Every structure is written in structure tokens, then in C-alpha cells.
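Input C-alpha cells:
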């Protein structure tokens, strides 16, 4: 009897198994290693009923929080502009896409046919606005290494949400065509009583308020997606950039081809 074996490694509370046919890359090259550091690592694993690709593209859509998450307790004190213009740039030496606001819109706007969308609740103090503001002048100049984008997608399966407190990372692994196992990691470099306090904060607040309630809204939307004709608009630049990047995953598409469209690219944009 012969049983096929796969290279495996246990780190950060997870057993990592490479099931591909190619030579397995070192684990440090396959995770956004610059964020995988800190003495405290909190892990949350959930299986959601959605296709892996939709889950990754949900992250690339930077404008959905304005609608989907505007009432989430986790966002109660965060002012979000109700509209903006998105930009996307390649990061991590061709392994990632950073997504950012090129232009930040107002906190209230009238959307014809839909009504008024406001993010001007009493609790959204302007003083907290800085939480949404990053210095993207470097991104505009093309100097992207070391820039903390609000969101970044990284090959092969990573979504990175950057906050002032640190990065929130999620690795999405397809279970089958209709479900995805999502591993979320929260790292902090704390020791002693500070580490204990953070663990309490995680279990008493972050785990239910962010990982269950806030992310639960994404889960609600993703699990109700119906296949059909796609409508892409100008702020989906992150989605399109991620799709282009995915075609080069695992060296499938040579870096010298980067300037050319992939053979089966057929995307129309509106708006
Ligand atoms: Fe979301």
C-alpha cells in the first residue's frame, strides 16, 4: 500500500500542509511574514458557505463597508466616507495588491434612486476621522513597499486589514466550490500583564464584535450571492487587479508577461 505524503509544518497554532504538485515554497514566503510576528497570536477558524474567489474579492471591494457595515457595533465610532475613489497598486514584489482611497468623499450624500446615505451619526466624532486616513502619497508615486494600505490582498490566499493597532490577517482555504475555511490571525507583541489584558480584550470584545458580528455581515452577504451576470464599476479596480495577479500565482504566468493582458481577460467597466 502506498500513501501519498505532503510536506507539513506546525506554526502559529495551525498545521500547514502543501498539497500542490510543485516544489513547496518555504512557509515564510507563502504567508505575509512581516505581519506574522508578535508574542501573542489569537486564531479564529470559521467555515463559511461561499466560493473562495468571492471571499477574496469581497476584500478587494473597498466600498462595501459603507453600505454593509455602517451599523455594525465594531464601526460605531469610526467615521467612514459614504463615497470615494479607489486605487490599487501592486505590492510585495508582485505578490500582492494594495487598495486605498485615491479620493475620500463626504460623510453624507444623495444617491439617485436609492436615497440619502449618511455616516454622520452623533457617535462618529470627527476627531476619530484619522483612523480612516493614511498617507498614500507614496502609493501615488509608486513607492509601495512599506506602505500600510487599509486593505491588501496577497497571494496565495491572504487578506490583510491594516489598523493602527496592528494587522488583522485572514487566510482563506477552499473546502469545495461552495465553502471556504477562513483562518483569522490577530498578532500583538505583548508580554506579561499586557498580553493577558489583550487576550481578555480579544475574548470579551474582538472575538464576538469583530470576528462574529462585523465579519458575520460579510458572511451573510457572501452566503447569499447568486451567480449571474457581473456588473463591474470603476471602484472595482482592486477586484480587477487581484484577478490579474491571481493568474500569475505560483509562477503560472511569467513576470515578463506582466504588462500584457492575460489571454482570457474580458472585463467591461461602467461608472
Ligand atoms: Fe466586509
Amino acid at each position: 500500500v502506498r500513501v501519498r505524503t505532503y510536506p507539513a509544518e506546525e506554526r502559529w497554532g495551525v498545521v500547514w500542509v502543501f498539497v500542490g504538485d510543485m516544489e513547496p515554497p518555504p512557509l515564510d514566503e507563502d504567508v505575509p511574514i512581516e505581519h506574522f510576528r508578535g508574542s501573542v497570536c489569537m486564531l479564529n477558524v470559521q467555515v463559511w458557505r461561499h466560493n473562495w474567489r468571492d471571499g477574496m474579492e469581497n476584500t478587494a471591494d473597498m466600498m462595501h463597508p459603507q453600505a454593509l457595515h455602517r451599523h455594525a457595533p465594531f464601526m460605531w465610532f469610526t467615521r467612514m466616507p459614504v463615497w470615494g475613489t479607489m486605487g490599487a497598486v501592486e505590492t510585495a514584489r508582485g505578490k500582492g495588491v494594495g487598495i486605498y482611497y485615491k479620493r475620500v468623499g463626504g460623510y453624507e450624500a444623495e444617491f439617485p434612486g436609492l436615497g440619502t446615505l449618511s455616516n454622520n451619526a452623533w457617535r462618529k466624532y470627527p476627531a476619530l476621522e484619522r483612523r480612516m486616513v493614511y498617507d498614500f502619497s507614496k502609493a501615488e508615486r509608486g513607492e509601495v513597499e512599506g506602505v500600510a494600505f487599509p486593505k491588501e490582498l496577497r497571494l496565495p490566499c491572504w487578506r490583510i486589514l491594516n489598523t493602527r493597532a496592528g494587522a488583522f490577517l485572514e487566510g482563506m482555504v477552499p473546502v469545495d466550490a461552495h465553502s471556504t475555511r477562513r483562518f483569522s490571525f490577530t498578532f500583538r507583541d505583548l508580554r506579561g500583564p499586557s498580553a493577558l489584558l489583550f487576550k481578555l480584550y480579544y475574548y470579551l470584545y474582538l472575538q464576538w464584535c469583530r470576528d462574529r458580528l462585523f465579519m458575520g455581515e460579510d458572511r451573510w452577504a457572501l452566503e447569499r450571492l447568486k451567480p449571474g451576470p457581473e456588473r463591474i464599476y470603476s471602484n472595482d479596480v482592486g477586484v480587477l487587479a487581484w484577478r490579474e495577479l491571481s493568474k500569475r500565482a505560483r509562477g503560472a504566468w511569467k513576470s515578463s508577461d506582466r504588462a500584457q493582458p492575460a489571454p482570457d481577460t474580458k472585463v467591461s467597466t461602467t461608472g
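The two ends are 59 Å apart (CA to CA). The first helix runs from residue 27 to 30.
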